[in-house]
Amino acid sequence: MPMIATGSERASIHVRDVLLVDGTGSAPRRADVAVTGDRIAAILPPGAPAPAATRVVEGEGRVLAPGFVDTHTHGDPLTQSYDAFLAMGVTTILLGMDGSGPRIGDDLDLRPWLAAIDRAELPLNVAALASHGTLRRASGIADSVRRPDDAALERIAARLDAELAAGAFGLSYGLEYVPGIYAEPAELARLGRAVADRKGVVMSHMRSENDEDIEASIEELIASALPARPHISHLKVVFGKGEDRARDLLALIAAKRRAGIDLSADAYPYNASFTGIALLFPEWALPPSDYAAVLTTRRQELRDHLVARMTRRGGPEALLIGTAPYAGKTLGQAAREAGLHFADFLIKIGPGGASGAHFTMDEALQDILIIDPDVAIATDGGPGMRHPRATGTFAKLIEHYVVNDGRLPIEQAVRKASGLPARILRLSDRGVIRPGAKADMILFAPEGVRARSTFVDPLAKADGIDMVIVNGRPAWENGERVGAPGRLLRAAAPS
User: Fold this and answer.
1) 437-475: buried (b, 16+ CB within 10 Å) or exposed (e) per residue?
2) Which helix (H) or strand (E) holds 394?
3) Phi, psi dihedrals of residue 171, rounded to the nearest 5°
4) Are 122 and 486 in contact (CB under 8 A)?
5) Listing from the earlier edge strand, what are the strands of the sheet with 273-276?
6) Under 8 Å CB-to-CB from 264, ≥6 apart: which residues?
7) What angle do CA 126, 412, 400 make, to 5 degrees?
8) Alpha-carbon distance 190 to 197, whole Å?
9) Entry pTM
10) For residue 199, is pLDDT > 80?
11) What are the backbone angles phi and psi of residue 490, rounded to the nearest 5°?
């Protein structure tokens, strides 16, 4: 058990007169909060005698909440800045998503990267998953192999177990991407058992998020993860419409939980995804297929596929390209400037030619998913991503759903961004403000929080999070980073 500071011990920070929103969903209450070292020392009545402090922070009635825990993040803190995450109150990020993990150079092993992160100066806490596609390639399995033999499966499982033992919190799948698209149930189930042995979580970009496929994709995730805990990354229904469709999906997930399956999910509050245009191409045109040969032998078939695919997805104006040299242009605009039909433009740049925002989701449906008490909030964003979710997700949660719309009370919004994702990751001492917990905290006035980024200006940082404390030390104040108190978080060994 952590030591709890008493009134006679010196606190490093004393936050005075705050509206404490503690991350559990409990009603806000006025309080003072004292921090000793990297932990919450005491929660005191406002104005009560407090330990002597090296610094007193005047809350002035503002909300003091746990730092937000982002369960779906991209990028690499070794080479990129996460200031935009601090600006919206994030104190912990989880990397290694969608089956593709961070690494050092060409080394596909997660462990050297973990060691490097452990030595690095970090502005926030960093955790990681092992990544299915990276493990597969590290085990010498060609991308297009659908049924690795028993020896290959054991190589993947052994690598996975080593990364879990090194502190990975579980495993991610990217079943709509190469090479996850080729993985079959026996392979996934074998890895799910390995994750279960370490009491980890299996997080998946599922096989399909389309309206007609989403239930089957959830069933596949559950079957491939059990007895490990399954988690749906960026819950959405592509092409689905209306609040009732959202409620039907949430009812399915709730039924699984009642049946004893610890199924969880996260979502982001935008009606466009952001991913590579490879998603538009048929499997037979994706790596490791010879794309030049595809163009020679099946070009018309490919063109017909792309026309049908983009027409269903809202047409070429419903894809906003986010990578150079076409960043900020719709597919239609980029194609017109090139003097090509949009399908011919896609064929020309190929499946690896760009990423972008795909406007394929219904806002009314997604809003119901966002306000559900059992759906956590995550960005699915990374530094430099040209999608406002990477810079605005948590600020929009407060600005739109709490202040403007009023559909989420502040205590529930905070829980969905802190206590709930911490529970999903089994971070027992983060995501809540209580004596003995790690002192990851944010101070803000809800009415002052602004998600400034848009699809036109996706890199604008959020406003209104006045102070971010990570492990008991300030990391963000007055709109700028002031320290590097973050740490590598490793999953606890199973008991």
Assistant:
1) bbbbbbbbbbeebbbbbebeebebbbbbbbbbbbbbbbb
2) helix 389-396
3) -135, 140
4) yes
5) 273-276, 355-358, 319-321
6) 201, 229, 230, 231, 232, 374, 376, 424
7) 90
8) 11
9) 0.92
10) yes
11) -115, 140
Residues 12 and 472 sit within 8 Å (Cβ to Cβ): yes
Span between the terminal Cα atoms of the chain, in Å: 16
8 Å CB contact between 18 and 59? yes
Question: What are the tens digits of pLDDT across the range 418-468?
Answer: 999 999 999 999 999 999 999 999 999 999 999 999 998 999 999 999 999
Q: How confident is the model at residue 5, as a pLDDT?
A: 38
Count of positions (residues) in the chain: 495
What residue ranges in 132-216 does DSSP mark as E strands?
Answer: 170-174, 201-205
Paired tokens of 13? 């920070």
DSSP state of 464: -
Cβ neighbors of 436 (< 8 A, separation 6 or more) are 1, 2, 4, 39, 40, 429
pLDDT of 6 > 50? The answer is no
Write out pLDDT tens, residues 268-324: 999 998 989 999 999 999 999 999 999 999 999 999 999 999 999 999 999 999 999
Handedness of CA 336, 341, 347, 350 (dihedral sign): positive
Q: Residue 191 and residue 168: Cα distance in Å, rounded?
A: 14
